[in-house]
Design a protein that fits this description.
Helices cover 33% and strands 20% of the residues. It has twelve helices and 19 strands. The strands form five sheets. The chain has a ten-stranded mixed β-sheet, sandwiched between helices. Strands 14-16-17 form a three-stranded mixed β-sheet. A hairpin with a 2-residue loop joins strand 4 and strand 5. The radius of gyration is 21 Å and the shape is globular. Bound molecules: guanosine-5'-triphosphate, inosinic acid and magnesium ion (MG). The site of guanosine-5'-triphosphate (GTP) has 24 residues, from helix 1 and strand 4.
């Protein structure tokens, strides 16, 4: 495996965090290639329970010498520092972290703008996570973004910062009729200086953290070392291929793993789609396999389907095979990882979304394996009840199954290939 991309095959929260933490045990480098603090990757391992928003999930693996926040991401320095302090509290060594110089920064005005924009949409709100993601990516494309590399020349950064600050202030006043929402520039700069001082201290110097990362990856790949490309969100939230406008503002699939890391496309020889055994969605937008109210309530409580970062209840539905076939085709998935199969132990009757006519979808009901049989506690593929194996094969739609996950912990992972 020279480079392997791990992407979300649904609407995010598929359990990419757990899968990347597992696979990172054999990876020299792990790269987050898109998104920012909107993600919430949960990891449970020997070191404890963690939620990572921007830091790659390879941070726990002693073998992983590089954990890169890639050029396609939009880190918020305040969020990064908070994450690192939480890791520090648990004694995790995070000196393998690097931030690419070209990554665009989420600045407080992006968060204000995101929230004002949502407020203005009223009933048509997207239900963003409120982390400033759409305005930050928009400013990147408008060529007015501030990048991580700008922080290495702080006087220069301040100049650009003040120029954009003034523009944003006019925008908030004229369009949104709000001026108080944004902190004054001195406060923002002072807070940022405090955060950079912490980072400079932890990494020896800021240049050790913020650097040009693609050459580091090429060097590793030239030596035959493994590189893992960690996706965030899911393919149905992709800005081009998702359910626009109810999407995130980045590309989430394998193409984005190339663009957002700097790893050449031909070296990404393994492409794993992570999918839940059912589906969830937070925020607004179409959900054609949504469960009945009773089923949804049951699964939400049982599986604690609430946003990792925002705490919002996730909408729950049955596995949509048509959407997955599309994601598999478009990303040329070489395998898939099915997570949360254990949750279905408590559902005697399951549903699967199958094609109905040209564009339609209907829920086909099938007998489950539970509660008389359970996948929880199984160690191998052969241990799984026959009907659970049949179910996995069915939702995988011909994509080879690499992993079946039956719990949040590392040892609750069945590896098939
Ligand atoms: P995003 O980047 O935000 O899309 O997140 P993610 O794909 O990393 O998923 P997230 O951590 O938000 O949600 C998955 C949840 O399921 C977490 O609470 C995990 O600990 C948990 N989890 C992962 N795999 C399994 C599994 O096989 N069974 C159970 N019961 N829980 C799991
Ligand atoms: P944004 O990425 O904050 O702009 O949110 C846009 C849409 O993507 C909303 O529907 C969010 O709920 C969804 N979204 C963004 N990040 C995640 C995630 O990590 N998991 C699940 N949904 C997400
Ligand atoms: Mg999440």
């Amino acid at each position: 495996m020279p480079a392997c991309a791990v992407i979300g095959g649904q609407w995010g929260d598929e359990g990419k965090g757990k899968i990347v933490d597992y696979l990172a045990q054999k990876a020299h480098a792990v790269v987050r290639y898109a998104g920012g603090g909107n993600a919430g990757h949960s990891v449970e391992n020997g070191a404890g329970k963690f939620v990572l928003r921007t830091v790659p999930c390879g941070i726990f693996s002693p073998k992983t010498e590089l954990n890169i926040i890639g050029c396609g991401t939009v880190p918020n320095i305040e969020v990064v520092v908070t994450e690192l302090k939480a890791l520090e509290d648990k004694g995790i060594d995070f000196r393998s972290l690097r931030i690419d110089i070209a990554a665009h920064l989420v600045i407080p005005w992006h968060i204000v703008e995101d929230n004002l924009q949502e407020e203005r949409r009223g009933n048509d709100k997207i239900g963003t996570t409120g982390n400033g993601i759409p305005p930050c990516y928009a400013d990147k494309v408008k060529l007015i973004g501030l990048r991580a590399g700008d922080l290495l020349d702080f006087p220069g950064f301040k100049k650009k910062f003040l120029r954009t600050y003034r523009e944003k202030k006019v925008l908030f006043k004229k369009i949104y009729k709000r001026t108080h929402a944004l902190k004054d520039p001195d406060t923002i700069i002072n807070e940022l200086e405090g955060q950079l001082e912490y980072l400079g201290r932890k990494f020896g110097s800021l240049d050790n953290l913020i650097c040009d990362t693609p050459p580091l990856l090429w060097e590793a790949l030239d030596k035959g070392q493994n590189v893992l490309l960690e996706g965030a969100q899911g393919f149905l939230l992709d800005i081009d291929h998702g359910t626009y406008p109810y999407v995130t503002s980045s590309c989430t699939g394998v193409a984005s793993a190339v663009q957002g890391s700097g790893v050449p496309v031909s070296l990404i020889t393994e492409r794993i789609g992570v999918v839940k055994a059912y589906m969830t969605r937070v925020g607004a937008g179409d959900f054609r396999t949504q469960m009945t109210l009773g089923e949804e309530k049951k699964i939400r409580e049982l599986a604690q389907e609430y946003g990792t970062v925002t705490g919002r209840p996730r909408r729950c539905g049955w596995f949509d095979t048509e959407y997955f076939k599309r994601a598999a085709r478009m990303n040329d998935l070489t395998s898939c990882a099915i997570t949360r199969l254990d949750i279905l132990d408590d559902f005697p009757l399951l549903g699967v979304g199958v094609r109905d006519g040209k564009d339609g979808i209907r829920i086909e009901r099938i007998q489950g394996w539970g509660p008389s049989q359970k996948v929880m506690g199984c160690k191998t593929w052969e241990d799984l009840p026959q009907s659970a194996r049949d179910y996995c094969e069915r939702i995988a739609c011909g994509v080879p199954i690499k992993i079946v996950s039956i719990g949040p912990k590392r040892d609750q992972t069945i590896v098939l290939r």
